[in-house]
Olfactory receptor
Amino acid sequence: STGTSLQPQLLIMVDFNSTSFHPATFQLTGFPGQEADHHWISIPFCVVYITAIVGNCTVLCIIWAERRLHQPMYLFLCMLSVNDLGMSLSTLPTVLGIFCFDVTDVAFDACLAQMFFIHSFSNMGSGILLAMSFDRFVAICDPLRYAAILTNPRIVRIGLAVVIRSFSVVLPLPILIKRLPFCRNVLSHAYCLHPDMMRLACADTIINNIYGLFAILVTYGLDSVFIILSYVKILRSVFNIASYEQRLTALNTCVSHICAVLLFYVPIIAVSIMHRFGGNAPRLVHILLSYAYLFVPPVLNPIVYSVKTKEIRKGISRIFSRDLL
């Protein structure tokens, strides 16, 4: 009787292993235990997406319409706004799908595509912030050669280099995920990320872990180091300026970029620390930090630049005054 009772279980295990190499779908997770309130939770997410899309589109329209804003600083800001739009649109289908329509399933290949674009736009954001720090470095440390160094063709090449680097670094991730067999298919978030998908595999993921660490070091790691070095040199140049008013003016040109850097890197650092040392923290804290990592920069970047940049403020005022007339 013991043999007959074990035989069906063995058959189920063999059948499960033979069909679980690639699950047909992954199951997304919103806020566990709050499924009944997902429709209410969707309201702030809709506000976040509308704010991010309208804010970044407004910045792009103002810079496009004002020819005097076709300068390196604002061209890099355009890149950042396009990247923020890409990040928002990458997460929008699944996040609003789960909170607005209770759609929790996402196809395996669609999940891989979303993972690729989320990580690509995140890496591009880091590269663009590095390019913007180089812009501020040249503007303050070598102002006489600013126009000669940051020409339009060179800015285009910098933008292409950021895109190519990001896509090249992220491209192996879906390939590495696709080679893994999966025993589970329930993700921890309302979108697909490489670490989250990797944890569902029932095979050795050391290659994924090593490459993931390598990707982080050659993007966020190197970018953050060069950004810090740029500001060390900027501060040295500023403190060599005799006039207090000129020092303040020079530093004011960097405030918006410093805020953008903090908005980008602080959530990433917080998520990394929480993953490594916050094992006893409530799951809700992990979820909220992961949302902050993806949603805070696209929402607040256009607000910061609109508040701190006089030319952007004037452009917004002209748009509203034109509409009122």
